[in-house]
Amino acid sequence: MSQRLVVIGSQWGDEGKGKITDFFACRADMVVRFQGGNNAGHSVMFNGKKYSLQSIPSGIFNPSTVNIMGNGMVVNPESVVVELQKLRDQGITDFQLFISDRAAMVMPWHADLDGAYEAQKGNKLIGTTKKGIGPAYCDKYSRSGLRMGDLLEPDYFAQRLHDAMVIKNRELEMLGLPSYDYQKVYKRFMDLAEILGPRITDTSYLINKYLREEDKKILFEGAQGMMLCIDHGTYPYVTSSTPSAASVPVGAGIAPQWINNVLGVAKAYCTRVGEGPFPTELFDEIANEIRERGHEYGTVTGRPRRIGWFDAVVARYTSQIAGISSWALMLFDVLSGLKTVKICTHYELDGKIVETPPSTISKLSRCKPVYIELPGWNEDISGIKSFDELPQNAKNYVRKIEEITGVPVGVLSVGPDRSQTILISPLLQEF
Ligand code: GDP
Ligand code: IMO
Ligand code: MG
C-alpha cells in the first residue's frame, strides 16, 4: 500500500511548506499541488543555493519524483513557462512535471481585474498578490472559465475563449481598463499549448495509479495557510481556495480515505503578509529583530511580513479543522537571543475568555491575546542535529506548544537549508 503525507500551512502562509516538501520529496515518488496558484511562493534551499517556486511543486528538484499540478489549482500557463525557464537557467533540467487537464486557467485579464477590484476597495483592500487568483476562481465557479485541457483542442478552445472574452472585455471596459484582442490572445495561448501541451493530462488517473501501488510515497503540498482559507480564515481577508487537507481529495481527484497523515507547518512565531486581523501582531523592536533575522519579506511580492508571537488559539483551531496530526515547527533558530518568548493561549473578547477565533473580523480585531511567558535561550541552534542537543529552554518551548495545542511536534526546522531539519516523529521517519 502507498504512503501518503499532506503538508499544509497552519497560519497565514509562508510557514516553510516549500522547505518541508522538498525535504520529504527527496524520498517521495510523487508531489502534488492541489489548490492555489502562483500566489504561492515556496522557497527551497540546498547545497548553498536558494530556489523559489510559485506554481510548480517543490518536488521538482528530485529527478525521480513525479510532480503534479492538480485540478484544484488555478494555473497561469504564461507564468508556468517563465518558472520552468528560470529553473532551467538555474541548472534544474532533469525533472518530471504534469498539469491537470481539469485545472482552471488564469487568463491575462484576471490580474487586471484583481488589481481593479483592490483599487475599488480603497483602504479596505485585501492586499492580494495581484496574480488574478480570486477572479480566476470566480470564473471557475461561475462556469465561464477555461481549463488547461481546453488548450489541447484548438477549435474547442477557440469557442470557449471567444465566449469568455465577450464577457470579460465588457467588464474591463466598464472598469475603464483596456480590453484584449481575441486573435492575439488566441495565438499566444496556442504557442503556450505547444510548450505545455505534452505535460497536460488526466493527473487524477496518475495519482490514483500510484496510490494503489506498493511502496509508493505520495506527498501533497498545500499552498497558503489555514487562516487564509476562504471558509475558515479571516474572511474577507483571505485567499480564494481552501488550503486544508480537506481540499486534497477534490483538488487532486482522489477519494478522502487516502488522507490520514497531515503535517501542519507552523512558524515558531507568526507572520502575515497583506491586510487583515492578526491578534498577536507585534509593533515593537522584537518584531523588527525577528523580521530581519528571519528575512521576513514576501517571496512573491517582496512586502515586509507582519510579525507576531505564536498563536495557540489559531494552532488549535487549524489543527482541528484541517486534521493536523503533527507540527513541523519552523524558523526555530530565529527565536534565539530573545530574553523571553511568549505564546498566546487564549483571547480576551469584550471581557470574556474565548477559545477559538470568532467568525467576524470585527470581533477578531477586538480580541486581545492572553500570553504565557517563557524564558528564552541565547545559543545559536542552527547547527543542531537532534532534539536532545537543544538548550533546555528551547526544549521547554517546544514541549509547551505540544501541551497547549495537543498536537506533537514531528519536525523541527533550525535553518532554511534542507540539512537544517530535525525529524522527531518515528512515524515521519518512515515516510
Ligand atoms: P512557504 O510559502 O510556506 O513555502 O514559505 P516561504 O518560502 O514563503 O517562506 C519561508 C521562508 O523561511 C523562506 O525564506 C525559507 O527559506 C525560510 N526558512 C524556512 N525554514 C526556515 C528555518 O527553519 N529557519 C530560517 N531561518 N529560515 C527558514
Ligand atoms: P504561500 O503558499 C502568504 C495572501 C495575500 C493576501 C491574501 C489574498 O507562499 O504560503 P490572493 O492573491 O491569494 O488573492 O491574496 O492571501 N496570500 C499569501 N500570503 N503566503 C502565501 O502563499 C499567500 N498567498 C496568498 O497576501 O493577503
Ligand atoms: Mg511563501
Characterization of the model:
By secondary structure, this protein is α/β, with parallel strands linked by helices. Helices cover 32% and strands 21% of the residues. The chain is built from 13 helices and 20 strands. The protein has a ten-stranded mixed sheet, sandwiched between helices. Helix 3 (108-120) packs across helix 4 (133-141). The protein is globular and about 65 Å long. Magnesium ion (MG) binds at residues 13-14, 40-42, 299.
What gross morphology would you assign?
globular
Radius of gyration: 22 Å
Estimate percent helicity: 25-40%
How many distinct beta strands?
20
Number of helices: 13
| Average pLDDT number | 97
Q: Spatial order of the strands in the main sheet? A: 9-7-5-2-10-1-11-15-19-20
Low-pLDDT ranges? none
Ligands in the structure?
Answer: guanosine-5'-diphosphate, 6-O-phosphoryl inosine monophosphate, magnesium ion
The first-to-last residue Cα distance is 13 Å
User: Largest sheet, if any?
Assistant: 10 strands, mixed
The chain-level structural class is alpha/beta
Name the beta content range: 15-25%
Using brief descriptors, characterize the structure shown.
431 residues; 21% strand; four-stranded mixed β-sheet; alpha/beta; binds 6-O-phosphoryl inosine monophosphate; binds guanosine-5'-diphosphate; ten-stranded mixed β-sheet; binds magnesium ion
